[in-house]
Automatic annotation (TrEMBL):
Name this polypeptide is given: Membrane-bound lytic murein transglycosylase B
Record-linked InterPro entries: Lysozyme-like_dom_sf, MltB-like, SLT_2
Gene3D superfamilies for this protein: 1.10.530.10, Bacterial muramidase (1.10.8.350)
Pfam families in the record: SLT_2 (PF13406)
GO biological process: peptidoglycan catabolic process
Domain Transglycosylase SLT, chain residue ranges per copy: 7-271
GO MF, one annotated term: peptidoglycan lytic transglycosylase activity
Amino acid sequence: MNGSRNLPNTINIMERPGESKPWYQYKTNFLAEGTIQRGVRFKQQYADTLNRAEQQSLVCLNQSFILGILGVETGYGSNKGSFITRDALATLGFGYPRRAQYFQDELGALIAWSYKDGVPTNSIVGSYAGAVGYPQFMPSNVSKFGVDYDGNGHVDLRNSAVDAIGSIANYLAQHGWQRDQPIAFLARYTGNNPDSIIAKDLTQPVPYGSLKNLGISPLNPIVKIDDLDLVNIIQLEDNNGPIYYITYPNFQVITTYNRSRMYATALWLLGTEIVSR
């Protein structure tokens, strides 16, 4: 830890309000044509690896979610962050009381990772909060879910897109991804009390039949949902007012990566668009 510097700007960023933008503004950050085109090029460049990740995953994870995460997190590696991870975690671990223990633990994980791989801690850079590499894994997740997918003997999420693809697939599979299950459907709401249907906790889905009786249904009449399917309802603010999604447990799995519902929706839509091209 010799030479570690205090980075007060990391605390300033942490103290900023969360996502205050409505959905119709938030989504433009990630669903722009330029981002989609970068994703298409990435898909073409790593087609064999993406296909392998799909086929080898025990849960048959669709590559669209890998592409969505990589696009939203780092623009397919174009913006992995410029903060020295050691310094960011030390600053937050000892200068940000609200989450000090979390960041101290991540600092410990970084040191262990650095020692194991023989990588100097001052050479690892990432986000202001200590996330690193293509997928922006926190250091503890590098050791838990990182995969040496290119077979060169070590996990390198900073420089190997192949390792990043395999590691994201492993992360989602280990967090409960359900094989051949939907993510979400746009919904129509005909009731007048949306608070009664909006999920407060995505880990507690309810039978669709109980929500249907309150005025929720798929926007596309072709979509059929069994009354016993366990789902949640989320609401986002679009240009012309609120929109609703019926979400399945796999949507909640995405929110373990980032708890924001807008984040999960954005990466789902981004990945789906890229795969369609």
